[in-house]
Every structure is written in C-alpha cells, then in structure tokens.
Amino acid sequence: MSSPPKRPSAASPPGGRQQRPGKAGSALALDLQIATFAGASKHAALLGHSKVKRWMAAALRGPAEITVRIVGEAEGRALNRQYRRKDYATNVLTFDYAREPVVSADLVLCAPVVVREAREQDKPLEAHYAHLLVHGTLHAQGYDHETSERDAFEMEALEVLLLGMLGFPNPY
C-alpha cells in the first residue's frame, strides 16, 4: 500500500466533480494486493487483476493510480480505528490523495465484512465486490453519499447505472 492516508476518511470530501465517470479509455494503473488472512486464497481467485481493473475503470472519468488491498478483519479494524476512530472493520475505506491531473488513491476492502454483507444481502460475492470497488472508485473522485440526500441519490444512481453496464443487478 502507498504511504499512510493524509486525512482520516471513509469517503472523500464533496466537490471537485466536473464530469461523469465512465469516460471511455480511462487509464488505470492498478496495484491489487491480497493480504495474508484466513481464506485469502478464495478472494485472490475471485478477484483477478483484469476483472477488478475493468470494474474500476468503468467508474473513472480520467487517468488514475489506485492501490486496492483486500484485508482480513484485524487489519480492517486497525485501519478504521486509526484513521476514522471507529473500532470495527468496515467494508471499504477510501483514501484519496489527489484528483487532478491523475486520481491517486488507496482502497482497502475487508474481506470478512464483504462476505458477511453479501450473505446478509443475498447477493453473489463477486457482485458485492464489484459494487464496493465502483463505490470506492467514485469516492476517490469526490463523490460522497454522506454530505446530503441529493449527493447520496446521485452517487447511488450512478452506481446502479455503472453496475448495470458491467452486467450486475441493482445493488440496492
């Protein structure tokens, strides 16, 4: 993973949106990391580099350098506690460093939380990962669902559209 986040955040601050994601030809330099934890090999097999890159590129409006790290419960909890002061593991953390001229960010997904949520929501694990990766990629570009109802509606509608283009059902 890159250097530690510059600010504690689960989501990027609002603003900075100038055009819609999904621009054809968006260049993504992806570093996909699978941490060592129980069941890591199952997640590594499911999340091939080209598949993850395709999902995330659909949500990009321009070039990006993003590290995706799939972690276990302990690392997910430690990062959430350290950077958000919340003592539990969450599904995805987005650490955005820059948006212009190239998006630079780290996405950390906690595999046990993703598995648990997929089971609770009765959806395939692959579909839930695709949703969270699109979601995190949008956050890295300034989209935020925690600032207002309007922003939440805009972000969710975009997620539904992008996931539909990728062949996944509405995640909500």
Task: Provide a short characterization of the protein structure.
By secondary structure, the chain is an alpha/beta fold. It is built from six helices and four strands.
* Rounded Rg: 15 Å
CATH architecture: 3-Layer(aba) Sandwich
Could you tell me how far the N terminus lies from the C terminus, measured between alpha carbons in angstroms? 30 Å
H/E element sequence: EHHEHEEHHH
> What is the number of helical segments per DSSP (H or I, 4+ residues)?
6
- Our estimate of the beta-strand percent is 15-25%
Oligomer: single chain
Per the CATH scheme, the topology name is Collagenase (Catalytic Domain)
| Domains, number | 1
Rough outline: globular
Which consecutive residue ranges, at least 5 long each, have pLDDT under 50?
1-25
Report on this model:
With 172 residues, the protein is an alpha/beta fold. The chain has one domain: Metalloproteases ("zincins"), catalytic domain (Collagenase (Catalytic Domain), 3-Layer(aba) Sandwich). It is built from 6 helices and 4 strands. The chain has helices at residues 40-46, 49-58, 73-84, 111-120, 125-140, 149-165; strands at 28-34, 64-71, 92-98, 103-110. A hairpin with a 4-residue loop joins strand 3 and strand 4 (103-110). Helix 4 (111-120) crosses helix 5 (125-140). Residues 1-25 have low confidence and may be disordered.
